[in-house]
Design goal:
The chain has a single domain, classed as Chitinase A, domain 3 (Roll), CATH 3.10.50.40. It is built from two helices and eleven strands; from the N terminus they run βαβββββαβββββ. The protein has helices at residues 9-22, 86-92; strands at residues 3-4, 23-29, 40-50, 55-65, 67-68, 81-82, 100-105, 123-128, 134-138, 142-162, 165-173. 32% of the residues are buried.
Amino acid sequence: MYEVELLDDPLRERLEREKREFVQIEGLKIGDGPLAAWGRKISAELEIHQADGTFIFKGPAYHLVGFKGAPESGLYDSEHLATIQPGIRLGLNGMAVGGKRRITVDRKLVCENIPDDAPPLAKCLVVGRSSIHGSEVLKQRLIVEATLTESCIPVRFRGFIWILRTSKEIYCRTLDEPKLDPAAPIWRYYH
């Protein structure tokens, strides 16, 4: 079973501030499905470039937002890369399934575990679990084209390991809630 982490006021305020200050969002298409929100599995088609145009990644990715100790966190899925970079995750937050956004992530949220005064060639993962099964990026601004393809409530996980191959399945319950509120500020962190 999945346990949702409490989204208390200090955490919510920090996420809202980071989204407002370090993530620029340009809505390219408004979706009409469920929102990417706290306590949901979100999937998206991503195309990621560094600000200088260097290509980083193109393809599907997923992330579980707001869960304690997700059981599949160590598993690799050859079709979707897991663990989306925090700035991208904030840019997807509040987006409705079927929508498309251009997200610009400030270098402050890229490689957030690397100090701002790190050498210019400092790298981290932007999507994935390792440099073998993921995409590395420099601590520089990112430009992301994202189409949200799924937002659902995970209810069950099944996985198996067979010699060197690992597989997984995440079963979801899809609800239409939460829905997009046109009056809500773009930086709101939905839960």
